[in-house]
Design goal:
By secondary structure, the chain is mainly α. About 60% of the residues lie in helices and about 0% in strands. The chain has one domain. GO terms for molecular function: DNA-binding transcription factor activity, RNA polymerase II-specific; RNA polymerase II cis-regulatory region sequence-specific DNA binding; zinc ion binding. One of its GO terms (biological process) is DNA-templated transcription. This is Putative c2h2 transcription factor.
Length: about 290
């Protein structure tokens, strides 16, 4: 996966480069990177109970690299309104383990971190098992009330991945809504159906409640577990915005020209926000507003 990791770094640098020509290089790297990741496989199995620290580190690094590529493709989708090259439905991997386990510098530190992770998360089946991505995403949409247990026992990177998955779900729901032609001659409104909105709101609320209780969650960007949990709250806000309003494709962010971006935002006529009567169970504040 070293080639994929190198391309990921190049793509990240090119994505935020000042010149549009370099941005095109980032988009060109996307397809190569997606092919490399797919060739290595988008599936994984639980770690054996007797796995060594060295073997665990190699497997965990591969898993994290693939998920970070998935997240970065989603960032391209968010910023530039292009479809992500790795879809939620393709990922058959287990979510990453805790930051403490991954940052351990010796086998002894790793074993100790695994013990702490196991004792602090009663919802986790075992210290060698992390939630499966597909099962975790499905449980967020479940009405059984166990969705929050996924994010509550999950690592900060795991929750970051799940909020990206929810934003991707919203993106494709919006794309479908724009092409849903009514039986009349009227143009499609692009609005999501009430059922879609309710389902996604439930998933976001489950993610949010679990995030608050997760051991690695923090609003401090300098937290020892890293800024990932903090960044996740920004994505949660974005998810709620995109769920309730169609932000449209024309934001001109790829121009790198602040005046062009300002003109695009000025000329864009946002549709009316979907009227919602939130009940007492709806989130009044997002994690970052305390």
């Amino acid at each position: 996966m070293q080639t994929a990791q190198a391309l990921l770094m190049l793509m990240a640098m090119a994505t935020w480069a000042k010149h549009k020509e370099i941005l095109r290089e980032a988009f060109a790297i996307q397809s190569i990177l997606a092919t490399l990741v797919r060739d290595d496989g988008l599936h994984s199995s639980p770690y054996p109970a007797d796995i060594s620290w060295e073997a665990w580190t190699q497997q965990e690094s591969r898993t994290r690299t693939k998920f970070i590529v998935f997240c970065f493709f989603n960032l391209h989708c968010i910023v530039y309104n292009i479809p992500p090259l790795i879809l939620n439905s393709e990922l058959k991997m287990r979510l990453p383990s805790s930051a403490a386990e991954f940052k351990a510098s010796s086998a002894a530190e790793w074993h100790e971190a695994r013990k702490r992770t196991s004792s602090s998360s009663s919802s986790s089946p075992s210290p060698t098992t992390t939630p499966d991505f597909q099962a975790a995403l499905r449980r967020l949409f479940s009405r059984g009330g166990d969705g929050r247990a996924i994010t509550e026992c999950n690592s900060s990177l795991g929750n970051y991945i799940l909020i990206h998955a929810l934003i991707q779900h919203i993106f494709f729901a919006r794309q479908t809504a724009r092409c849903h032609f009514p039986t009349t001659t009227a143009a499609p409104t692009g609005d999501l159906s009430p059922d879609d909105i309710n389902s996604l709101e439930h998933a976001l609320r489950a993610w949010q409640h679990g995030w608050r209780r997760a051991p690695e969650s923090s609003l401090d960007p300098l937290s020892p577990t890293g800024p990932v949990a903090f960044n996740s709250t920004a994505l949660l806000r974005l998810a709620y915005i995109r769920l309730n309003i169609d932000t449209g494709p024309g934001r001109a962010l790829d121009t790198r020209d602040p005046y062009a971006v300002a003109r695009a935002l000025r000329d864009w006529s946002p549709p009316a926000l979907i009227a919602r009567n939130y009940n007492s169970d709806s989130p009044k504040r997002l994690p970052g507003t305390y």
